[in-house]
Design brief:
Protein name: Glycosyltransferase 61 catalytic domain-containing protein
Radius of gyration: 34 Å
Shape: elongated
Helix content: 25-40%
Membrane topology: Single-pass type II membrane protein
Main location: Golgi
Largest sheet: 9 strands, mixed
Subcellular location: Golgi apparatus membrane
Number of helices: 13
Pathway: Glycan metabolism
Oligomer: single chain
Length: 472
């Protein structure tokens, strides 16, 4: 049925109008019926797509008139796995910003107080596993990653069982400070996930494959987390997928100060346990131990004997004080743990050896020394051990910067100036050093007197952090 509208054309002089024209429109009932059919068709299409996403391996397309087998769909999913460069050169100007240039297509997962991370398989990965095709130690853009469902990992890929820790750092895993920052979020993860050691590590620097950590860093990882091999992919020609993987690419990232302190407490406790350091005897000692931890070569003191004599004299004046002098290159890992565990006041030039301060008791003191030129040219990196002291619960008692020395040959080239100043030796100021040492020794004695009952200083003991699951 339709409703007709007749349009009449008026006659004009001597001209006859053509026959009336009729234009038909559907009535309301037919219009509603058509809209209903269109809506139903769209709904069915959306429903089919939704079901396909829900169960990609067990879905057939009825509209095609034939049914795809599970094997067909699995093969299609395998073929659709896309590998991308681990190092995304589009972000080379800001490689540490956002979610970094490492695995840049995947957004971080955030939890309160924790460093940002990626976890596979997870809801955010839609249940897919992490896969690498990464053998290149020189160019991270040639190393590749992808995500794939377990039933449809890439052609020729192998699946490694267990949990894999994947670490990418902008710096390295060899230097004590940078290596510690790279593994710290994994220690936090390990604590809150039941202290189960991973099956392996996979290490990257700028997306380039690394097959070892520095000896000190590796020992920290083993005592705080557990022993695990570092994957080299040797003998593996195709892609490698991981049954379970967690990725940290921001070092400390968004970790809260309290969480970093928890990590350092665990490292301190587990290292002392590993090295069999008897803390009861150390805490019972009456004397204050001032340790001069000296460097050889770069950033060593020009007149070491004079510097030692200044601190020995102030220690003698203070009473109940002893000075111990050690060189950074003469000690094993456990020697360093024992030395720092005994140390109340650390006197040392700026350098990687200062990372050992995390083995000192909380509320111990640190005195730091720099050669000329660092304050103006070194940037924020010169403050890392002040930050470490704060995070580890120490009292950073300031710095002394050598004002003496020849100027930079070319002041207009600031980078070259820094390299010129970076590893210079450090002079001394007898009067300043004496007053500074006297003040720090007095502060330490007052702190000890403020502890009324043995063992009442919770911040200094914290041995419970050797137990899994303990938190701040």
């Amino acid at each position: 049925m339709s409703t007709s509208i007749t349009i009449s054309l008026e006659k004009s002089s001597k001209i006859h109008a053509p026959a009336p024209k009729t234009v038909s429109f559907p009535n309301n009932s037919s219009l509603k019926h058509s809209l209903f059919l269109v809506t139903l068709f769209i709904f069915l299409l959306l429903f089919i797509q939704f079901k396909a996403l829900q169960s990609p391996l067990h879905f057939s397309w009825p509209l095609l008139g034939s049914q795809l087998s599970d094997q067909d769909i699995t093969s299609m999913l395998r073929d659709s796995v896309t590998f991308l460069p681990l190092k995304d050169l589009r972000f080379s100007k800001e490689p540490e910003s956002g979610h970094t240039w490492f695995m840049s297509s995947i957004n971080d997962t955030f939890e309160p107080n924790e460093s940002e991370y990626l976890y596979f398989p997870s809801n955010s990965s839609k249940g897919r596993l992490l896969c690498f095709y990464a053998h290149d130690p020189h160019d991270g853009a040639k190393n590749l990653y992808a995500i794939a469902w377990r039933e449809a990992i890439p052609h020729g890929a192998i699946l490694l069982p267990g949990l894999t820790y994947v670490s990418d750092t902008y710096y390295d895993h060899s230097n004590l400070w940078h290596g510690l920052n790279a593994i710290a979020p994994f220690i936090a993860w390990n604590i809150r996930k039941g202290c189960v050691a991973p099956a392996r590590w996979v290490l990257f620097h700028w997306g380039e494959l690394r097959t070892e950590m520095g000896k000190w860093v590796n020992t920290i990882a083993e005592v705080a987390i557990g022993k695990a091999e570092i994957e080299t992919f040797k003998g593996i020609e195709g892609p490698t997928c991981f049954e379970e993987a967690v990725v940290f690419r921001h070092s400390h990232g968004a970790m809260s100060k309290a969480r970093v302190g928890e990590v350092y407490d665990r490292i301190r406790c587990k290292a002392r346990e590993f090295c069999k350091v008897g803390m009861d005897k150390i805490r019972d000692k009456k004397d204050v131990q001032m340790t001069l931890f000296l460097r050889t070569g770069a950033r060593s003191f020009k007149n070491e004997s004079v510097v030692v004599s200044v601190f020995e004299e102030e220690c003698r004046k203070a009473g109940n004080c002893r000075v111990k002098v050690e060189k950074t290159d003469n000690l094993s890992f456990c020697d360093q743990v024992r030395l720092m565990s005994e140390t109340d006041i650390l006197v040392t030039p700026h350098g990687a050896q200062m990372t050992n301060i995390l083995f000192m008791e909380r509320n111990s003191s640190v005195m730091e020394f720099y050669p000329k030129g660092w304050e103006d040219l070194a940037g924020v990196g010169q403050y890392v051990y002040k930050w470490l002291s704060d995070w580890a619960g120490m009292r950073h008692q300031g710095v002394w910067r050598d004002p003496e020395g020849p100027p930079c040959p070319d002041p207009s080239d600031k980078l070259q100036c820094f390299f010129d100043f970076k590893d210079r030796q450090i002079g001394h100021d007898t009067v300043y050093f004496s007053k500074w040492a006297s003040k720090v020794l007095q502060d330490m004695k007052e702190h000890r007197q403020a502890i009324p009952v043995k063992g009442n200083d919770l911040s200094a003991t914290r041995t419970n952090f050797c137990q899994c699951g303990t938190s701040v």
